[in-house]
Write a structure and sequence with these properties.
Strand order of the largest sheet of chain B: 1-2
Structural class of chain B: mainly alpha
Mean pLDDT of chain B: 86
Radius of gyration of chain A: 20 Å
Strand content of chain A: under 5%
Helix content of chain A: over 70%
CATH topology of chain A: Formate dehydrogenase/DMSO reductase fold
Strand content of chain B: 5-15%
Structural class of chain A: mainly alpha
Helix content of chain B: over 70%
Number of domains of chain A: 1
Order of helices and strands of chain A: HHHHHHHHHHHHEEHH
Oligomer: heterodimer
Largest sheet of chain A: 2 strands, antiparallel
Mean pLDDT of chain A: 86
Order of helices and strands of chain B: HHHHEEHHHHEEEHEHHHEEHH
Number of domains of chain B: 1
Largest interface: A-B, 65 and 69 residues
Number of helices of chain B: 14
Distance between the termini of chain B: 52 Å
CATH class of chain A: Mainly Alpha
């Protein structure tokens, strides 16, 4: 049997990146929402993400790891071109990662400082990731228009993460904080709607390749299912958040998060469709950038053995920490 | 790429990052096993003091681990941003080893760390002990893979050329390359020493504040006892590692001993200032024939000098000095650990001068680890992968202004993080574990 290894690894990398964006997205989003909450609520918010953030971030290492292992040619090109936003993202991730631990142990103004660094780090990491995505889609072309485009993508991704964070809080909290989260969800939705609309219009303009893929009748008609599905998910989240904000009895707590995840999955599929088969748009395809089959094979075998375990204990961890978050995490 | 400044800047940045990163795994690898021990003692005795001890050290562990994670993520990106040539040339070997580290270690550690930190009241005791154990095992897996890669870079084996690229011909040879058994043992023992001196040092710090704290006295004893066992083992393994290096990387050993020319009956240079310009040692204090005796077990044995390997020789002075620093610290740690065990025999109360010494040696393991790391990594230059890839071939094409700006950013963030880390853990330790109610979340 002859496996198309580069294709398999492209799919694996896609899954890792999507898992990262959704999982770390919600905890980065919660970080960005911190200034909107009071001190007691902040404790609950941190408790709602505390047991998960570290494993969530590991998906980023897996994503970049697959890029490194499976597509070494692209790894150098992509990370070299994204040098500064990557450095900014890393500094953001470092600040917020250690702020998790430091803020619990600090007292007085020290604690305020780490809260602030937690917020700033979350924002810096999110915005940089959006910038990276924007630069990536346009093939790292320079020029004012491309920079503006990357900034819009950066802002949109922040909106998306805020949406994920707010809906996660609806799921993990109750009472007044949950009501607040429902209101934040609607702000996040508006932000995302603006962002997605702007990016969807702008992407075909900045990239001829993307334009060719989407405006090709009659295929365009079936492709329109994707924005339609996104719209349906958007309305679903808007309505279920509204029910929670009004305090309607029996409103499910998990639906807004599920809807937000659906929006991210649809956006991801759209993006994947736009870029495929390129790992660096217009320059390198997955097949051109792929590592030697011998090393791909050994990693694939390892991944197939280990991934079921990773999934199993991730499920176990979410099962252990099911239900509403409680403050006083360390006791 | 032939801009020497850019290479130096890229090396400085990566060296800073990896040197900063190595501090935290060097502590957590072994500290995880201390946690397992404290956790089991609590489960068996049900004593509140053991629980409080466990909780204190779990906090210190969590902080250290978080520092390791965030700096580790940075490294996974800097492979690409700073050394694209590394992956282009040897990616088919380095890549899978790194991938296995992520797959087998990182997810395991990160997930069960959550259960360990926040799950004590949510899962049965045996599950919680199991989670603590899995975190410890995860750190071992991580060390295994990364040291397999690092050792392969020093003493490559098992690779073949196929279709114009370097690939692994035999993965077992790649992983269990000639220096791997020595290097991983040396590193794991280094972690054991680092952690036991941190445990003993912070406990001593606590006892200086509150001399009646029985929990701190207990952890002090645990720390010095472990250190007293590991220190002589480490010196033995280090010597064996050195002989292995002499066999596979003789230029590194020549630099460690500042031996410029091949000699029979080579002297051991105790102290000197190696002078690259004159290829000569200034202010040298030597013991005749001792280097030959140590390295070849023969007073007249021949030891190859640096000139034999020219021009592919590492810079001599940093390797020479870092090696002496590591040795001196190792001997001092051995002496302090044995003296402590002797003084503390039969449950004697520790005198203040001993407590001050141990507190002063809290982070000695870090300094020794960094010194050893400098010896081995600088000693490999000008190669990135011995005989296969030169460092200069692997450096990226990043503009030096970008490198400079990001380097400044990293330095500032690292300084902030390290400062906060040391303040917080000494504060936590100084506060102690009793009364337990003083610990607020």
């Amino acid at each position: 049997m002859n496996l198309d290894l580069p294709l398999i690894f492209a799919a694996l990398m896609g899954v890792a990146v999507l898992a990262y964006v959704v999982l770390d997205g919600y905890d980065l989003g919660v970080g960005m929402l911190m200034p909107a909450a009071d001190a007691r609520e902040q404790e609950l918010m941190v408790a709602a993400i505390g047991p998960f953030w570290d494993a969530n971030e590991t998906w980023l290492v897996l994503g970049v790891g697959i890029l490194l292992v499976a597509f070494p040619q692209a790894h150098g090109v992509v990370l070299g071109a994204l040098y500064l936003p990557v450095a900014a993202m890393l500094i953001g991730l470092m600040l917020r990662g250690v702020a998790f631990e430091f803020r619990v142990k600090a007292e007085g103004w020290h604690r305020e400082l780490w809260n602030w660094l937690f917020y700033v780090g979350s924002f810096l990491a999110s915005f940089s990731q959006g910038l990276m995505l924007g630069r990536y889609i346009t093939g790292f072309d320079s020029g004012f228009g491309y920079l503006l485009y990357a900034l819009v993508v950066g802002a949109s991704l922040c909106g998306g993460y805020v949406l994920l964070g707010a809906t996660w809080l609806i799921y993990k909290t109750e009472g007044t904080l949950q009501k607040k989260a429902a209101a934040w969800t609607r702000w996040g939705l508006l932000w995302v709607a603006l962002g997605v609309a702007a990016v969807s219009v702008a992407t075909p303009l900045v990239s001829h390749t993307v334009q060719m893929k989407w405006f090709d009748f009659p295929r365009t008609l079936s492709l329109m299912l994707l924005p339609m599905a996104t719209l349906v998910a958007w309305i679903w989240v808007w309505r279920s958040a509204g029910r929670l904000a009004r305090g309607v009895a029996g409103a499910a707590h998990w639906t807004p998060f599920a809807g937000a995840v659906a929006i991210f999955v649809f956006a991801f599929l759209g993006l994947a469709y736009s870029l495929f088969p390129y790992v660096v748009i217009d320059r390198l395809t997955f097949w051109q950038a792929a590592a030697h089959p011998s090393s791909l094979k050994v990693v694939l075998v390892g991944a197939l053995i280990v991934l079921p375990f990773i999934v199993a204990y991730t499920v176990f961890s979410y099962y252990v920490f099911r239900g509403k978050a409680r403050a006083g995490l360390y006791e | 790429m032939d801009n020497p400044d850019l290479i130096q800047l890229a090396r400085a940045q990566f060296g800073l990052n990896i040197g900063f990163h190595i501090l935290f795994p060097a502590l957590t690898i072994a500290l995880a096993w201390f946690l397992v021990y404290f956790r089991i003692r609590y489960a068996k005795s049900g004593e509140a003091a053991w629980l409080a001890t466990y909780k204190l050290w779990v906090k210190i562990f969590a902080l250290t681990f978080a520092m390791g994670v965030v700096t580790g993520i940075t490294m996974s990106f800097q492979f690409g941003t700073n050394w694209p040539g590394f992956m282009n040339h040897v990616g088919n070997i380095a890549g899978p080893l790194l991938a296995f580290e992520v797959l087998t270690a990182f997810f395991l550690e990160a997930t069960f760390l959550g259960v360990m930190l926040f799950g004590m009241n949510r899962v049965p005791a045996w599950v919680h002990i199991g989670a603590t154990l899995l975190v410890a095992i995860g750190t071992l897996f991580s060390a295994f893979w990364i040291l397999a890669l690092n050792s392969w870079m020093h003493t490559p084996a098992g690779q073949v050329m196929a279709d114009g690229v370097l690939i692994a011909g035999d993965w077992l040879q790649v992983i269990f390359n000639p220096s791997f058994p020595y290097r991983i043992t040396h590193m794991l023992l280094a972690s054991g020493l680092t952690a036991s001196f941190v445990v003993a040092g912070l406990s001593a710090w606590r006892l200086l504040h509150a001399k009646a704290d029985v929990s701190a006295l207990r952890t002090l004893r645990t720390g010095v006892l472990v250190a007293a066992v590991i220190a002589p083992l480490q010196i033995f393994v280090g010597d064996q590692h050195g002989l292995n290096t002499l066999e596979h990387q003789p230029a590194k050993v020549a630099a460690m001993e500042a031996l410029w020319n091949t000699e029979r009956g080579a002297p051991l240079v105790l102290f000197a200032v190696p002078n690259e310009a004159t290829q000569h040692n200034d202010y040298a204090i030597e013991v005749p024939r001792l280097a030959s005796l140590i390295l070849t077990h023969d007073l007249d044995g021949e030891v190859k000098g640096l000139s034999t390997f020219a021009p592919d020789t590492p810079p001599v002075a940093p390797v020479f000095f870092a090696f002496r620093l590591m040795l001196a610290l190792g001997m001092a740690m051995l002496a302090l650990a044995w003296i402590s065990v002797w003084v503390l025999r039969k449950n004697a109360a520790p005198p203040r001068c001993l407590l001050w010494s141990l507190a002063g040696f809290t982070f000695s393991g870090w300094v020794a680890t960094l010194a050893g790391w400098l010896v081995t990594e600088i000693g490999r230059q000008p190669w990135l992968v011995t005989g296969i890839l030169r460092t200069a071939q692997a450096v990226g094409r990043v503009r030096d202004a970008q490198l400079g700006a990001s380097l400044t950013g990293y330095v500032l963030v690292y300084a902030l993080m390290l400062g906060a880390y040391m303040v917080v853990i000494t504060h936590l330790a100084g506060k102690g574990v009793l009364p337990a109610k003083a610990d607020s979340a």
